[in-house]
Write a structure and sequence with these properties.
350 residues; alpha+beta; Immunoglobulin-like; 4-stranded antiparallel sheet; 3-stranded antiparallel sheet; 9 strands; elongated; disordered N terminus
Length: 350
């Protein structure tokens, strides 16, 4: 009777060890979600960051990239933007490894109000964890600033009008019945005209010659422009050389975002537009792909080396600014020029 008891005790001890090890691994995974800015505006992009901290739980344990199950954004009234960035870091203390992964995606609210993001499930080597639910207050769209109209010193109004004294019988000669104070009593004599000198006549003739030459150049430019316009309008409306629709609106939108205080919203849209335009040029869907994957995909399809370098610098700068929140106006203006140039290219022209 003692042998079965020993076997049962051994099985119980083994099962307890396994349950404790599984519980230790589950406790080694933590997930946290946050948004920036805390109160986004409707129609403007904002970012959602999921930070995952996972420990191996044992000596020499291996860790892998966590898997994130995103909720249904359409059901929540949010739009997922194509930009996404991931940063990782690992530390080892006493033979145990701890990995920290931050995944940042771009979102955009369709209307103002309160949006509740449910818990996001994160799965790693040590098990799974959920983030706390987030409640976001979406504010209304920001109004465009009114144009600045310069005004003269002191403003406009009757206070700046010159004061003209009214004539009186004591100050104006000729005042009397039947004489209107609004009309002068006598027409002032014009000053004598001076005859132009020889130098002035030569300068006048030179000015007339320059004006005639400028007019001739203008006529030639108009003729050449009409010929060029006719050749352009005679091309078919499809195929290489056709610019992307809405390019002007895209550039105007990016210029407005560049002037805001937080540069992260600007670079989220720049990164998304660069991916969309590159996908249109090379004939592939590059939305939602990481920067390294996008560069590896277009490297064999874009022949312009200078354009490849500019695209790589823009996407890497966008990932850096989304993480740090600092950027320069000069870099932002150069990246807007890159988006404008990509919009002007047709399929297969890179």
């Amino acid at each position: 009777m003692r042998a079965p008891t020993g076997i049962a005790a051994g099985l119980t001890a083994a099962l307890s060890v396994a349950l404790c090890a599984s519980a230790g691994r589950a406790q080694g995974l933590q997930a946290q979600a946050s948004v920036s800015p805390e109160k986004p505006r409707a129609g403007e992009p904002f970012q959602l960051t999921v930070r995952v901290v996972e420990s191996s739980g044992r000596l020499g344990g291996a860790l892998g990239a966590p898997s994130i199950s995103w909720p249904d954004w359409d059901r929540l009234g949010l739009a997922r933007l194509p930009s996404e960035s991931t940063s990782t870091g690992t530390t080892t203390v006493g033979g145990r490894t701890t990995a920290t992964t931050s995944v940042t995606i771009g979102l955009q609210a369709r209307a103002e109000g309160t949006v509740e993001i449910p818990p996001i499930v994160v799965t790693g080597v040590g098990g799974s964890a959920e983030t706390a639910p987030l409640k976001i207050v979406v504010e209304g769209q920001a109004s465009m600033p009114p144009p600045i109209v310069p005004t003269p010193p002191g403003g406009l109004g009757p206070q700046n009008m010159p004061v003209v004294p009214w004539p009186s019988p004591h100050s104006a000669p000729g005042w009397g019945p039947g004489v209107s104070p609004l009309l002068p009593l006598s027409e002032p004599s014009p000053p004598p005209e001076s005859q132009p000198t020889a130098r002035e006549r030569a300068a006048e003739r030179l000015q007339m010659a320059v004006g005639a030459f400028a007019f001739l150049v203008l006529v030639i430019a108009l003729v050449l422009g009409a010929v060029k316009w006719k050749s352009l309008t005679s091309r078919p409306a499809t195929g290489p050389g056709v610019a992307a629709p809405g390019a002007d609106a895209t550039v105007q939108r990016l210029t407005y975002l560049m002037q805001q205080a937080d540069p992260r919203a600007f670079y989220l849209e720049v990164s998304g537009h660069v991916r969309v335009q590159l996908g249109r040029i090379v004939g592939m869907d590059l939305s939602g792909r990481a920067t390294d994957e996008v560069l590896a995909t277009i490297r064999g399809r874009v022949r312009d080396g200078q354009l490849l370098g500019a695209v790589a610098e823009c996407l890497q700068s966008a990932d850096r600014v989304v993480g740090s929140g600092t950027a320069s106006q000069a870099d932002a203006a150069r990246h807007i020029d890159l988006v404008r140039y990509l919009c002007s290219l047709g399929p297969g022209m890179a």
